Amino acid sequence: MSSGKSLTQKVIEYIKFHPGAKPADIADYLGISPKLVRAILSRLRARGIIVRTEKGYFLRPGAEASEKGLTQRLLEEEKVSEELESGKQLAEAIASLATSAEAAKPHEEGESRAQQASLTSATPVSSHDVEALKKFVEELRSRAQNIEDAQSKIIKKVEELESRVQGAESQFEEITKRLTEIGSRIEKLESAINKITNELSAVKAQSMQVREVKPSGENHTSLGYCTKLVVEALDVVKMSLESIRIGDVHSLESLTQELEDLVSRIRKCLKLKE
After folding, report:
1. Of 233, 227, 235, 220, nearest in space to 206 by CA
2. Rounded to an integer, what distance in angstroms lies between the CA atom of residue 27 and that of residue 236?
3. Whole-angstrom Cα distance, residue 213 to residue 119?
4. If you classify domain 7-117 with CATH, what class do you get?
5. What pLDDT digit, counting tens, does each position of 234-246 carry?
6. Which of 78, 164, 224, 248 could join 6 in a cystine, given CB atoms 3.0 to 4.6 angstroms apart?
């Protein structure tokens, strides 16, 4: 094969003299990478210059008949190869520059720090700048103090609210305790009233059986007097039940005492009557 030709032309000539060539064979012969050979073969197939079969690559029948067209294709492929080669060289150059820059970075950083220190020491600071800086610092301190004061006020209000909540909880517990006690006392009073009511019913039944009535209405042993006490006791029972309904504990206690006194008097009256 002749020298001085592009890689594309060399690949075509190799396939021409070696029908059924494999990419690995072409790469070994030309001393290039198989990846580059496959790229060239792919472009040649796309342009209709070669065909691929199970045995390998072949020149397409009739591809040599049009020498002018083949030459044009070769020139185009050569241009592409040159562009690839240029791109490869450019990439290598960029990589070299990156490596050099990375190696010089510590030195540049040191020089940059030195330059900054030099500029800092060399740049004069005016009294106006110093005063402006002091004013800015004072404003920051004032704002920080205002924030701290607001925070203290918020904390104080939160503590007050917590104290009020605790007081309300304590009051609620006390009210609950009192309501429980009142409920217990009402239950006891209801039991006492029921007992007294039963006794009054028995007294009423007993008084209905009495046949003799003494003429003196003032006599505490007369039937009329006993009946009057029973009626009063029944009125007290009604008032006690009303007090239970409305929850008037104090009135209920006094009514219960009065009812017990009436029952005691009724018992004495009936005993004397007998």
Report:
1. 227
2. 126
3. 132
4. mainly alpha
5. 888 888 888 888 8
6. 78
